[in-house]
Known about the structure:
By secondary structure, the chain is α/β, with parallel strands linked by helices. Helices cover 41% and strands 19% of the residues. It has helices at 20-34, 44-49, 62-72, 90-98, 124-140, 169-189, and strands at 7-12, 38-42, 76-84, 87-88, 114-121, 144-145, 150-153. Strands 1, 2, 3, 4, 5, 6 and 7 form a seven-stranded mixed sheet that branches. It is globular, with a radius of gyration of 16 Å. It starts with 6 loop residues before the first strand and ends with a helix. The model has no long low-confidence stretch (mean pLDDT 95). It comes from Sphingomonas glacialis. This is NADPH-dependent oxidoreductase.
Amino acid sequence: MSVRRKRIVGIGGTLRAGSSSERLVRAVLSACADAGAETTLFDGAALARFGHFNVEDTACTDEQRAFVESVRAADGLVLGTPGYHGGVSGLVKNAIDLLEDLRGDTRPYFEGRPVGLIVSAAGWQAGGVTLSALRGIVHAMRGWPTPIGIAINSVEQRPFDANGDLVDAGIDSAVSAQARQIMTFALEAHAA
Ligand SMILES: Cc1cc2nc3c(=O)[nH]c(=O)nc-3n(C[C@H](O)[C@H](O)[C@H](O)COP(=O)(O)O)c2cc1C
C-alpha cells in the first residue's frame, strides 16, 4: 500500500535579498523533504503579490486561492517572520489573515496540524516577543506550535555563509529538531 507523502507548507520571509527568516523557513522545509515530505514555500515575494485582506470582499486572486488551498491540504506548516517593531511583519500577518477563508472548514485554520515557528530579529527582545506572538496566533488558529521554536539574532549570529548555506551548528541542530517534530506529529496525527 502506498502512503501519501506528508505535505508541509512554509510561509514567510521578507522582500530583502537573502532574507534570513526566509532562509530558515527553507532550511526547515528542506529537512522535512529529507524526511519524505512534499514541500511548498510561499516566500516574501509570493506574499507581497497578495492583496490586502479585506473582510468585506470575499473575491480571491488565483494566487490567494492557491495559497489558501495549499494550507487547507497541508499536514504541517512552518511560519517565519522578521521581528518588525516588536512583532510579526505586516507582510506575514496579511498572509495569515487571508487564511480566514479556512474558518468554516470541517478542519478550520490550522486545526490538528503542527506548526514550526521561526523569527529573525536584530535583538533578543524582539526575537522572544515575536516568537511568543506567533505561538499566540497559532493557538488562536487551533494549530499546534512545535515545542522547538527558533528565534535568531541577526546581528549577533551569522547562520548563513555567502552562498546561503546554513553554517551555524547550533541553529542547524534546532532546524533539524523542529523538522523532526513537525514530521513526527504529522505522521502520528494523520497516519493514513
Ligand atoms: C521596519 C523594520 C522594523 C524592525 N524592527 C525591529 C525590532 O523592533 N526589533 C528588532 O530586534 N529588530 C527589528 N528590525 C530588524 C529585523 O528584525 C532584522 O533585520 C531581521 O533579521 C530581518 O529579517 P530578514 O533577514 O528575514 O529580512 C526591524 C527591521 C525593519 C526593516
